[in-house]
Amino acid sequence: MEKKKKTNNKEPINSVKGMRDIMNDQYYSYQGFFEKAQEVAVYYGFKPIETPIVEHEETFTSSIGIGTDIVDKEMYTLKTKGGDHLALRPEQTAGTMRAYIEHGMQNTPQPVMLYKYGPVFRHDNPQRGRYRQFYQFDMDGLGSEKSIVDALVIKTAMVILEECGAQNIAVNINSIGDKTCRGSYIKELTNYYKKHIGELGAIDKERLKTNPLRILDSKDPKTISVNENAPDSISYLCSECKKHFKEVLEYLEKMDIPYILNKNLVRGLSYYTRTVFEIIEINGNEDGTPLTIASGGRYDYLGKMLGSKKDIPAVGASIGVDRVVESPWCAKLAPR
């Protein structure tokens, strides 16, 4: 009797949702972006660093903060056979600060200017230019609280984007103060939201208990309407924060960098202090709304969150490489 041939009905294995293969011309575009960005960063005094893709989970839970979407919903975590709790990096700043402390960079001339490039991971809803494995190019100035470092980081990011073909871009910018003045602002903000509690969505009601600043970043249409009349952080800045922010804006003006004061800009991570910003393409989204292609801010308290005995002033910017490479204005980024 003839044996029947076994058939394999198994479906082919595809890449994980939100992750993809980069090849052919697209591969060269990513490579070309890195070469161009690296060239600009080196020109402005930044030096390279590469940190691990995997860090201790505490590196991010201590710094990004409970009550943020990244920690609560989006972080890829794993437990090793030895019992270590690890995480795929959802951003690169915490790892950079960890390396700065671990390798004693605070004992070298300050500021320490670093750039890095690589994949980061967030279990987010995939959409245009946003993947679960995506690429960032970061620049950080660590060890100085001077406002010129804020401006230099922003300038470097702007030049990189312009070199890639961006034209209609500007800086959305705000200051959220420091530990001297932020407490009174958060108290005022909390009281305002309590008066409008019935107008907030379920997620924002929960944020009111854990992280009121995050409500300013809400995408809920009802909350956006409430935010129009929310107290602004600039009105509550102490004299030192006000002076610092004024200087940052003056530097941007001297460098002819267009900026927009945005009182609702807070950024989504708990470690930010004082300057926060986004670089936007004015009409970048398909519906004509602004598209964020880079972002960052000052994070003077991150060092202590990661175990430093004293605060380490620092500021950084991160460029969303996928959005740059996929933008219609992006020049052909073929490597030399």
Can you tag this structure with a few keywords?
alpha+beta; eight-stranded mixed sheet; three-stranded antiparallel sheet; 34% helix; globular
Written overview of the protein:
With 336 residues, this protein is α+β, with helices and mostly antiparallel strands. The protein has 11 helices and 11 strands. The protein has helices at 24-43, 57-61, 69-74, 93-102, 147-163, 182-195, 202-210, 221-227, 239-254, 302-305, 321-325, and strands at 47-48, 54-56, 77-79, 85-88, 112-121, 133-142, 169-175, 259-261, 273-281, 291-298, 314-320. It has an 8-stranded mixed beta sheet. Strands 2-4-3 form a 3-stranded antiparallel beta sheet. A hairpin with a 5-residue loop joins strand 3 and strand 4 (85-88). Helix 1 (24-43) runs antiparallel to helix 5 (147-163) and helix 5 (147-163) packs parallel to helix 9 (239-254). The longest helix is centred in the N-terminal third of the chain and has 20 residues, at 24-43.
